[in-house]
Task: inverse folding
């Protein structure tokens, strides 16, 4: 069974640009969550989607947004990039919302110059 | 305000000995706790979990202990192996309503098992 797939794995952007990251969950998983990992803050919750609906949102500014498609694939977008947005963005899927175990992808490493 | 704290950024243990990783939390609403392991250039992988109604859960070499009164949990690895060298994240969850949830992670502890 294929794992969680995130694309692109690495990308470099400049301040003010926008970026879209993609996540394909494990087949059959309907919940997709996004996390930001930075050396100083660890893993911080961005948002969770289940059946195309955002179920929960972390404490991030409105520049961070996401969506989920009918096939459970998810995208997250960051607009007007800032230097502090440089991080590893991790996507995780699970069978259902409210379940404890998440399966993570390898992440998308974003560098903002 | 950090709700899940892993106060030891790193830990070194000799192969064959016990590794004890600690985690403290402040939110009494947390009802489910998990440990994840992360190797460089990989995403975190689930290791073991415990519900707030239990005080111990064991899976092979890994045991998690929960002390609700102290708001403390620990992960014991016995015996430690070099392949256990990784960053370990403690995480906690609370039902956020309507069946949704979010995991709150600690900042991680880097475990090095010395052969």
Result:
């Amino acid at each position: 069974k294929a794992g969680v797939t995130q694309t692109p794995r690495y990308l470099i952007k400049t301040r003010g640009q926008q970026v879209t990251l993609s996540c394909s969950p494990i087949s059959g998983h309907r919940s997709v969550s996004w996390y930001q990992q930075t050396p100083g803050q660890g893993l911080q919750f961005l948002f969770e989607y289940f059946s195309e609906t955002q179920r929960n949102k972390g404490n991030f500014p409105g520049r961070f947004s996401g969506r989920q498609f009918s096939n459970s694939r998810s995208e997250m977008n960051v607009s007007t990039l800032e230097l502090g947005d440089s991080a590893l963005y991790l996507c995780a899927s699970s069978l259902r919302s409210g379940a404890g175990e998440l399966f993570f992808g390898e992440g998308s490493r974003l560098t903002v110059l | 305000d950090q709700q899940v704290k892993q106060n030891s950024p790193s830990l070194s243990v000799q192969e064959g000995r016990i590794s004890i990783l600690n985690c403290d939390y402040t939110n009494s609403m947390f009802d489910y706790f998990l440990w994840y392991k992360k190797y460089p250039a990989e995403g975190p992988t689930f290791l073991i979990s415990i519900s707030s109604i239990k005080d111990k859960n064991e899976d092979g070499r890994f045991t998690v202990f929960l002390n609700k009164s102290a708001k403390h949990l620990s992960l014991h690895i016995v015996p430690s192996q070099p392949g256990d060298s990784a960053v370990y994240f403690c995480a906690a969850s609370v039902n956020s309503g309507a069946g949704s949830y979010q995991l709150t992670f600690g900042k991680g502890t880097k475990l090095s098992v010395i052969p």
